[in-house]
Amino acid sequence: MGANQKLRHRTVWLLIIILALGFGAVISRLAYLQLVKGDDLQKKAVEQQLVDTTISAKRGTIYDTKGKVLAQSASVWRVVMAPATFENDEQREYVAKNLAEILDLDEAELLEDTKENTYYVSVKRKIESEEKDKILKLMNDIEEKYEISGVISLLDDYKRYYPYNELGSSVIGFTGSDDQGLSGVEVQYDDYLSGTPGRLVTSRSAVSTKAAFEYNQNIDAVDGDSLILTIDETIQSIVEKYMAQGIVDNDVYNRGVCIVMDVNTGEILAMASVNGFDLNDPFTLSQEEKERMKTVDSEYLIKNGYTEDPSKLSDEEYKKLEKHAKNEQESSALSKMWRNKAISDTYYPGSVFKMVTLSMALEENLVNEDSRFSCSGAYKLYEKNIHCHNTAGHGTETYQEALWNSCNPAFIQIGQLVGEEKFWDYYQAFGFSEKTGIDLPGESDDIFFSEDGSLGPVDLAVASFGQNFSITPIQMITAASAVANGGNLVQPHVVKQILDSKGNVVKTIPNDTKRQVISTDVSKEMREILEQNAITGSGKAGYVAGYRIAGKTGTSEKLNDSNGDGVDDYIASYCGFAPADNPKIAALVFFDTPLGGSYYGSAVSAPVFANIMSEVLPYLEVAAQYTDDELANIDTTAGSYTGMSVKDATKAANSDGFNVTVKGEGDKVLAQVPVTGTTVPVDGTIVLYTDENSSSEKVTVPDLVGYSVSDANYIASYSGLNISVSGSASSSDSVSVAQSIKEGEQVSPGTVITITFTSGSTIND
Amino acid sequence: MNTIEYSSKERRRDYERETGAVSHKSQNYNKRNRIKKRFSLISMGKGLDMPFCILIMILLAVGLTMMFSASYPVAYYEIGDSYYYLKRQLLFILIGLILMLGISFVDYHYFHRMSVVVLAVSYFALLLVLVLPSPTGVHRWIGIGSFGIQASEISKFAIILFLAHWGSKYYDRMNTFKYGVLPGLIVFVSTAALLLLEPHYSCIVIIALLTVLMLYISGINIKWLLIGGIALIAVILILWVTGMLSYAMERMEGWGQALTATEGKLWQDTWQTRNSLYAIGSGGLFGLGLGQSRQKYLFLPEPQNDFIFAVVCEELGLVGAVIILLIFALLVWRGIVISLRAKDRFGKLLGIGLTSLVGLQVILNILVITDWLPNTGISLPFFSYGGSSILTLMFEMGIVLSISRTSNIEKS
Lengths: 765, 412
Hints:
The complex is a heterodimer.
Chain A: H1 3-36, H2 38-49, E1 50-55, E2 62-63, E3 69-81, H3 89-103, H4 107-114, E4 121-127, H5 129-146, E5 152-161, H6 169-172, H7 184-188, H8 190-194, E6 198-203, E7 216-219, E8 226-229, H9 233-249, E9 256-262, E10 268-274, H10 287-292, H11 298-303, H12 315-338, H13 341-344, H14 354-363, E11 373-375, E12 378-381, E13 384-387, E14 395-397, H15 399-405, H16 408-429, H17 457-463, H18 473-484, E15 488-490, E16 495-499, E17 505-508, E18 513-516, H19 520-535, E19 550-557, E20 570-578, E21 585-592, H20 601-619, H21 628-632, E22 635-637, H22 646-655, E23 659-663, E24 671-673, E25 679-681, E26 685-689, E27 699-700, H23 709-718, E28 722-727, E29 734-739, E30 746-747, E31 752-759
Helix pairs in contact in A: 3-4, 3-5, 9-20, 14-16, 14-19, 15-19, 16-17
Chain B: H1 8-20, H2 27-36, H3 50-79, H4 84-105, H5 109-131, E1 141-144, E2 147-150, H6 151-169, H7 177-197, H8 201-218, H9 222-242, H10 246-252, H11 264-269, H12 271-283, H13 308-341, H14 345-369, H15 387-411
Antiparallel strand pairs in B: 1-2
Helix pairs in contact in B: 3-4, 3-13, 4-15, 5-6, 5-7, 6-7, 6-8, 6-14, 7-8, 8-14, 12-13, 13-14, 13-15, 14-15
């Protein structure tokens, strides 16, 4: 074979190697990647090529039972910047300066941001329309001035508003920065409220979020569902008003709780943990909590176990630890402030629980007309003396009297009749052993003596009057409702209905009854006993004139000392319902650690209960039925007598039930005190002025505290003043404790002074 | 193999033909040829192999289109001018075409005499880059103003030229070790050693393949290739052990792991390869359409350079890629056919070497972008952006055309 032939020969082989082997391998590799692995690779490529922007869904509105808005989302905007589009420092400075001005941000920090080489920097979230308009103008200016666009953009966002600020704060709850529910129904119903965010899928390049190639897919956001609560804003306001007053009056250290519940449906009409917090600003400590914050110093750090010896720490470490301790203290203060005490706190129910114990005994027919219990002031059990609040003893009592007296020894005996086993059965039946399942987050479990319900004789003895086991306020009021409503244990709930964004009903929360715990007869008897208790018994401080109130006081020792005064804390509570013959609502008032002298439920909580009921019952259109005594103290409204002749005016005022005093010499009435529409007690005095000068005449307000209703009335009318009676004024031993206008002030004759009365001889419970 | 059995008559004829081009005895013959090839606008196409020319033009047109498509997002984002690469590449191609046509008029036998000089230039260039300052620590470029040329481009040409020269001059002694293997070995080892210092491993691979290819068609004994293969493996092992391959190893880290890497350095190292695979896979059978690549939006770094074929695959799909590969195959085929028609052994060897270089570059480039070879920097002829590679390529294609011109004119 010649050299050329050999070359030709080898070249053919070379061609075969290059073309067949080389190109063949390359093509088969490409075919494998593009056809076999193609889908998989493309999927991965798409993941990085497309940008998936979430479109916020508008969060649903929360309404009260009457349709008042309690929480609402409104459109706001987020400002974002694309610093990579800047061309020079002049533009950066201009934008930083203007943004800082409009959004109240730090200019130097913004300038740093403008130097980043990215297309997405979040400048500020949740700006409102006023700022938005300014930003729009700035965007326009930038475009005109520098001919660059897309430097700043606005993204839609939503912000939550709570029109009533503090009202119902622990129930409504609030949302976080990403519009997610963090507490209350906001978190409980987050799935409904939040809706479904939409998606905007667009193309992107590796460094920019801007669309790089044509691709656009839009899935609209579905707005969240709205909630209609069972909470009634009016009732909630009434409750919070009196609870706040109660906290001030009694120097309450650990806040107070009030629940108002529909006894038949389990609907919560009001639930307050007072003082609450501003839902529009939930991360700022209330003034009260701020004042309680302890100074973080070396001593604090040692005492709270942060360090054993601060002097061993370097400055930097010490500062870090100090900051850490401060943060911890603040976050614990915040969570305390947010805590819904009505369902999260457990407490010894105390004497309020006696209504449950007595119900057990009646249901089991263990007590009857002939039953008698004796009280010598203390009850001796296994070498241990259990004292009654009345150390002198109540003597021999019927079971009704035992409750009216809130007598512990008598209830120990009733408890013994019930026995450990039945006590545990009823304890479970009344729903104390399990969470009520209310639709709110953070409900606590009870703490009973033992897991399986077994309890010793001493346990049973103290349990019968509500000591040494812990339940939540919501469990107590649910059980009280069962006692009141014919024996049905209802399901407490705060949401009535869920509506979609178009107003269609998504879900109606049923008014479930879990079970019947006691018979209607026992319930009826309990209502009667408790009503009598509110009239003449230990619960009479909760009485409201004109209404059939039933109630029971409770005072329980907490066995801890939160305020550091060296004395165990107390909880003063009152639980009652009305109207007693056909109960509609139940209310539980409790104050945690009152430090204002008295810590008894009868002194601290009962008047607040009475005040709340006195406004809530008329609001619920419960017809008032006054006794004769009460009729005398009923207020009426002053009519309009001005402009009439003296003779006609006197006649009209008399027929309205007022006494008349005429001041001046004129023929015609020029002015009157009290003015038209003022609440004046029947038999009050209307002063009619007939000439210009006479109206300047003033009288001095006398001291009206410490008198009975009739005495106070007499003194007031002697000075030419009217009084309006408030509080517990029906019993013969009522005493005035406060007057709305201070002694010594100069007022016009006929002015109405509101005087608060309290039942003179309250039982210390 | 059967040189000994060669008839003396055949030998003489062969030898005369090989040496004839440069011998003074055949001056007249050469003169006649050169006159016929004198540059004239009218005779520009005369003797040129039209299929080969057309294939080059097709590849240039397709390559430029794809280079523009691949480069415009990068050009827009990084330079601010979407047409930046297009404009420059177009200029290079125009200069390249003129260069190619110009070279095609040059009698390639000149290179016969120039081969040693070119080889010397190659060594000089390889040494020069080592002393030139380089910010990256990789010495590959010789800059002349804004224009740079890779020293290795010269080396590839120099080795083909030298081995074509040697193989034609001592064609009858190629069977021996001394004449057949040793010169090629010396040239390869010395060049490879300098490339190691740059370092430029992918080029070593190419010149190794070129050396083997040239020696093979020059007619050396096959056993030396086998021995060479074993030696090569041994050398690689030694380099491996001595750590000289550290740079290459760094580049090879992540080789074959582009799709399994999830984080850290490996993720970064395999970024380009991974996005290349995404691009290729996204193409499927028919591609996303011309200009529709998504990976070129800064996901695939430098899509206009070595990884341009990934964008081609994404936009034109397997069908488009295979058609382009077939055009390349036709070019190689045609180039070799032209070379085999050359009247002398030097033309044959030179033509085959230069044509095969194109084929080798295509194959190696696609094996790199498909993650079958480590990411080492081999450009795709006619497609990848770059002045020096385009001009070198067009220069080489000019030589192949010159060979075609000579053989065609002689034929006519």
